[in-house]
Design a protein that fits this description.
Aminopeptidase, single chain, two-stranded antiparallel ribbon
Length: 345
């Protein structure tokens, strides 16, 4: 591995004012878990999903009760995940087998990163849509508010219900990771290379980001994917950073996980099981089917996009994004039918 380039001015001049708002990250649990296993082959995948699948923390009663969207007719061979990165105020891990604090307490955590991921095992593709945290949407039982409030008010069931009603799609599985897990996973793969297009300064984090390619450790990666201030596009540029980071993470995991490096395999899979939690309906068989069905998937087969936005506005003193819900539903119906729009549309 070539020496890591130095990143000057990484250390903050003073601590961030609001550390509980650190988390803005894009970690797609399904992609990371599957890609980490791709190099193992069929027999190795069976053993790994049984061995490591038993170690994955399951979330009981993650899904809402009552009516839910039906399974699409084209559902065979596809799986839809809702994946969240949570902004926990806990000083201790709340997700994965390393968790020593509760995943959810009323008002204590927000889902600051939300992704819908549609995996097609027949075609070997993945379509990922970011839903900005400032999206102003109806939250069942609470009127309208920013979508990140759903997890804060009702945990995984209310968040899933909110997204299902917004998109009209049925969520098959739910995964979540907190900032402790994001940092640990990044460090476990030896850091993630990211190319920064221009010099920027984030006044909220008091950090400089220098143009060029840098291998980011966990702390540096957190700072990069949460940057909003100092970027021309603000929140939307932050989402681009997150998607860029995930692509690089996918490539990193694929490059590092080899049968010839069993210690590296074990280290990375331990990091995954130690940092992520999934719904209790996701069995080891579900995981193994994904591994075998998508074992040829790489970053070029993954499409990233953002929920369509009409405009931004101030609502009750809060900055909010108004989504084009009709277009969002139409896009997702196309994804489920196997006809996703071209990237960037």
């Amino acid at each position: 591995m070539p020496p890591r380039p130095r990143w000057p001015n990484w250390e903050p001049r003073q601590p961030p004012r609001r550390p509980h708002r650190w988390l803005r990250r894009l970690l797609v649990l399904a992609l990371v878990a599957v890609l980490a296993l791709l190099g193992l082959g069929v027999g190795g995948a069976w053993w790994a999903t049984e061995h490591y699948g038993d170690q994955v923390t399951r979330i009981p009663d993650a899904f809402p009760k009552g009516p839910r969207p039906p399974q699409p007719e084209e559902h065979r061979g596809t799986t839809t995940f809702l994946l969240a990165g949570i902004d926990s105020r806990s000083k201790h891990p709340t997700t994965g087998s390393d968790a020593t604090a509760s995943l959810w307490k009323y008002g204590a955590q927000r889902s600051d990163t939300l992704m819908l991921v549609h995996l097609d095992t027949d075609k070997g593709t993945a379509y990922t849509m970011s839903i900005p945290r400032d999206s102003w949407v109806p939250i069942p039982g609470h009127g309208s508010a920013k979508i990140n409030a759903a997890f804060s008010w009702g945990g995984p069931p209310l968040l899933i219900q909110t997204v299902e009603r917004l998109t009209g799609t049925r969520v098959d599985h739910f995964g979540v990771i907190d900032w402790h897990g994001f940092r640990s996973l990044t460090d476990a793969v030896g850091g993630v290379p990211v190319t920064v297009p221009r010099d920027t300064y984030d006044p909220e984090q008091h950090r400089h980001f220098s143009a060029g390619t840098h291998v980011l450790n966990g702390e540096q990666a957190l700072a990069y994917v949460r940057q909003r201030h100092g970027l021309p596009g603000g929140e939307l540029d932050r989402i681009k950073h997150q998607q860029q980071f995930l692509r690089s993470l996918v490539d990193r995991v694929r490059g590092d996980i080899r049968l010839t490096d069993p210690l590296g395999v074990d280290r990375t899979l331990d990091a995954i099981t130690g940092t992520v939690s999934v719904d209790d309906r996701m069995s080891n068989t579900d995981l193994r089917d994904l591994v075998l069905g998508l074992r040829q998937l790489d970053a070029t087969d993954a499409t990233f996009t953002t929920a369509p936005i009409v405009r931004s506005r101030m609502i009750d003193g809060q900055y909010a994004l108004i989504l084009d819900r009709g277009k969002l539903r139409a896009v997702w119906r196309g994804v489920e039918a196997g006809h996703p729009p071209a990237p960037g549309r």
